[in-house]
Amino acid sequence: MTRIEKLTRASHLIDMNDIIREGNPTLRQVAQPVEVPLADQDILLGEKMMQFLKHSQDPVMAEKLGLRGGVGLAAPQLDISKRIIACLVPNPEDENGNPPAQAYALEVIMYNPKIVSHSVQETALADGEGCLSVDRPVEGYVIRHSRITVEYTDKQGQAQRIKLKGFNAIVVQHEIDHINGIMFYDRINAENPFAMKEGLLLID
């Protein structure tokens, strides 16, 4: 049984054991484009990746399956070198603790995503970034574009174009880095991890 066959079995729920960690060579490879029209197996893999993210954000399922919470996952993190990413960014509760009108600020599976334009302004998360493939804390500002335009194929095989900014843009850039063999800490200033570049927009 191939890796993708195992992960896309109807009974299989992706968990932390399926996610490879830093040091595995797959994380440093440039992933292969996905053929369009999409194969059923690639569609199913994308859906399984999204299912993992939903489970990881659900306190009951996360505890049951032993998951770390995640907002994004790329196929190379599952040891499958294909250009597939899934992103799931929840909307916050309001100041009174009520659930948001829309559960997610971003819910998308992208095949062959490509950043086609970006802002000059750069941004970083004030608390730094984490990664499901990195089990240690890595401190420092991960410098990214503040706004991006991404072209990708959706699971229906349709070409899509989306503009993103702020945290949503950061999440998608993190996952696109994975399909290009780049880890988030590659973008941290090694000599001064918290160096403030001119015009850098910090997001809390």
Task: Provide a compact summary of the structure.
By secondary structure, the protein is an alpha+beta fold. It has a single domain, classed as Peptide Deformylase, CATH 3.90.45.
Question: Mind explaining what this structure looks like?
Answer:
There is one protein chain. The chain is of the alpha+beta class and 204 residues long. The chain has a single domain, classed as Peptide deformylase (Peptide Deformylase). Helices cover 22% and strands 24% of the residues. The protein contains four helices and eight strands. It has helices at residues 3-7, 40-57, 59-65, 166-179, and strands at 72-74, 84-90, 104-118, 122-125, 144-145, 147-153, 159-165, 201-203. The protein has a five-stranded antiparallel beta sheet. The longest helix is centred in the first third of the chain and has 18 residues, at 40-57. The chain starts with a helix and ends with a strand. 34% of the residues are buried. The mean pLDDT is 97.
Order of helices and strands: HHHEEEEEEEHE
Arrangement of strands in the largest sheet: 1-2-3-6-7
Helix content: 10-25%
The average pLDDT value, as a whole number, equals: 97
Largest sheet: 5 strands, antiparallel
Topology, number of strands: 8
- Which structural class is indicated by helix and strand composition? alpha+beta
CATH second-level architecture: Alpha-Beta Complex
Query: Total helix count?
Result: 4
* Low-confidence blocks of residues: none
What is the CATH superfamily label?
Peptide deformylase
Distance from first to last alpha carbon = 44 Å
Number of domains: 1
What is the CATH T-level topology?
Peptide Deformylase
Report the C-alpha radius of gyration, rounded: 17 Å
% residues in beta strands: 15-25%
Question: Can you tell me the overall shape?
Answer: globular
CATH hierarchy, class: Alpha Beta
Organism: Streptococcus ovuberis
Catalytic activity: N-terminal N-formyl-L-methionyl-[peptide] + H2O = N-terminal L-methionyl-[peptide] + formate
Enzyme class: hydrolase
Active site: 175
